[in-house]
Task: inverse folding
């Protein structure tokens, strides 16, 4: 049974099938049908410049001089979310056991919406862990307009101070979503605002972290799928598909156990490293890497037996600390071939990390091998958040004449270009017979982006739906990309850890697909679905920072995997012009025709706005 049929059971008569508004003044009028939440909504693209009241204000976050040097330093609050002791584990288990999963239905809280500095009567309702905004008399064609915001899509709420010189007891707020859409709402009195605030403080920005998971628990209760997405990925099977033979006595690799996450709490329970490295030596290597994220294999290129490893920065510090076990490990990784170390950061940022006992590899420490350190100039999360905010805000402005220049000023697509070009550099390193190690500061944001994109360039299997699922499960979930922190699934409003790293990766992939569409089994709808749902909090896939947290919170039991929906509705994500005849992963590279078909093209001059997502 698909999601649509199950959702119908939960509909309430007071919430009919309703039209949705799109608050953009730059989209031409057209009709489109979209499935959103539990409703089939008809979107009427009309000119509704909801954000005109917000002046053009390009974020200056990325222009602060201190960012250039110190904001690449490792997260100070790492232990706050990962060091869960036994008492806290018991507490989480008790909360999960006693939690009540119930719908929230509140109808018609009176308010006014401020659009283009004009007031429009409206109402706010809550249902299925979504905020439903109803705007009256805004357009002559329709008596009502609606906007639906999932609870977990809210970034913050700014309360505008009341006018104490007025006798009117009114409260005005600015509700901001994670794609920086802004809704100015004025409540008729403090009592109506209090009704809104109760739901906001208990479920949207709750004091108890467990309540942030309620939308995904509720979605699990409503939906039934034929396939359990949590069971699709297998660590051993994935590397078998890479043609890595770990069972042979002549294998140069070994699987090591990260039992109970004792070596690294943000890594998977199993990792692959070169042979003849003992667990004792590996632990010493891990202590020399930020957050114990030691170099681990993520991809084996079977055509020339070259590898991509990933890790965090080494802890060389300002005194040039050397770790002999780390030297041994990297020497074995190189296999007597050149080792290209891709440091995702700008060189100035990497150098500044030495103050915090971080830094980057000194080739002189590895005399037995040729080490090339390549800096990719990818900015940190604070810059990327600023770029994303700039882009989103530029699309909501009424000044459509300067739209293209505003998009360019946002610098979002400058960062996309750097990400893609760096991935092609890794691609070329592997093709030219070099082994590769990729890292940034902590090795879970930019490192994940580059490893994933370079594998898509190298291996056609990751251009299929099943292959892409494995890629996300391996490099994003198992290797600990911080979905919880980056998607702001916390009780902290406008957290400084919020950053759409996954959206940036998907936009980069969109650019590659746009220029090589026939080479991908999945279509643009697939990318849009993943981008939208990654910020909506319906699926447990994107709610946690690593496998350790997913196990503690029993995500596999209480939430759905996003792949449940994908595999149950796979046909809607299939590209009808995919080159199936090219679907052969064991190429003979002496055949130039096959090699040419296999390679992807990229022209940076053809980068374009991802309209399906940013103009949704």
Result:
């Amino acid at each position: 049974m698909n999601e649509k049929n199950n959702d119908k059971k939960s509909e309430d008569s007071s919430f009919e099938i309703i039209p949705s508004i799109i608050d953009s003044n730059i989209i031409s009028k057209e009709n489109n049908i979209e499935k959103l939440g539990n409703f089939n909504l008809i979107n009427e693209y009309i000119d509704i410049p909801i954000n005109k009241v917000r002046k053009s204000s390009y974020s200056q976050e990325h222009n602060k001089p201190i960012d250039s040097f110190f904001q690449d330093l490792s997260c100070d609050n790492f232990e706050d979310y990962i060091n869960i002791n036994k008492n806290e584990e018991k507490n989480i288990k008790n909360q999960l056991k006693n939690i009540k999963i119930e719908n929230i239905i509140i109808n018609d809280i009176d308010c006014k919406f401020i659009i283009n500095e004009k007031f429009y009567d409206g109402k706010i309702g809550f249902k299925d862990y979504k905020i439903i905004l109803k705007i009256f008399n805004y357009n002559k064609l329709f008596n009502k307009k609606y906007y639906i915001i999932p609870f977990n899509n809210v970034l913050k709420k700014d309360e505008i101070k009341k006018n104490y010189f007025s006798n009117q007891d009114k409260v005005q707020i600015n509700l901001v979503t994670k794609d920086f859409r802004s809704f100015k709402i004025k409540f008729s009195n403090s009592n109506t605002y209090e009704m809104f605030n109760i739901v906001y403080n208990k479920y949207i920005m709750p004091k108890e972290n467990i309540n942030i998971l309620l939308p995904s628990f509720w979605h699990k209760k409503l939906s039934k799928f034929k396939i359990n997405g949590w069971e699709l990925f297998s660590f051993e099977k994935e590397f078998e598909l890479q043609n890595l033979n770990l069972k042979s006595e002549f294998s140069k690799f070994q699987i090591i156990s990260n039992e109970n996450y004792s070596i690294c709490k943000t890594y998977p329970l199993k990792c692959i490293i070169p042979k003849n490295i003992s667990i004792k030596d590996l632990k010493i290597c891990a202590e020399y890497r930020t957050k114990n994220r030691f170099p681990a294999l993520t991809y084996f290129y079977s055509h020339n037996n070259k590898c991509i490893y990933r890790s965090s920065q080494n802890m060389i510090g300002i005194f040039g600390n050397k770790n002999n076990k780390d030297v041994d490990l990297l020497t074995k990784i190189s296999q007597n071939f050149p080792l290209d170390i891709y440091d995702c950061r700008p060189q100035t940022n990497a150098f500044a990390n030495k103050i915090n006992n971080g830094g980057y590899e000194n080739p002189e420490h590895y005399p037995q091998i040729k080490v090339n350190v390549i800096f990719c100039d990818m900015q940190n999360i604070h810059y990327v958040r600023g770029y994303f905010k700039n882009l989103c805000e530029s699309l909501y402005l009424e000044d459509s004449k300067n739209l293209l220049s505003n998009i360019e000023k946002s610098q979002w697509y400058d960062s996309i270009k750097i990400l893609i070009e760096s991935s092609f550099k890794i691609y070329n390193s592997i093709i030219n017979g070099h082994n590769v190690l990729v890292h940034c500061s902590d090795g879970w944001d930019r490192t994940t982006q580059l490893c994933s994109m370079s594998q898509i360039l190298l291996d056609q299997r990751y251009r299929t739906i099943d292959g892409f699922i494995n890629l996300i499960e391996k490099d994003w979930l198992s290797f600990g990309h911080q979905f919880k922190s980056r998607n702001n699934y916390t009780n902290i409003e406008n957290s400084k850890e919020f950053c759409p790293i996954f959206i940036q990766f998907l936009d980069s992939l969109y650019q590659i697909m746009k220029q090589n569409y026939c080479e991908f089994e999945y279509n643009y709808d697939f990318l849009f679905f993943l981008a939208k749902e990654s910020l909506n909090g319906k699926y447990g896939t994107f709610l946690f920072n690593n496998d350790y947290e997913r196990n503690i919170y029993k995500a596999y039991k209480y939430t759905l995997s996003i792949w449940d929906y994908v595999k149950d509705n796979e046909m809607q994500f299939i590209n009808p012009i995919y080159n199936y005849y090219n679907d052969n992963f064991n190429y003979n590279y002496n055949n130039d025709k096959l090699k040419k078909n296999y390679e992807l093209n990229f022209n940076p001059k053809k980068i374009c706005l991802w309209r399906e997502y940013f103009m949704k």
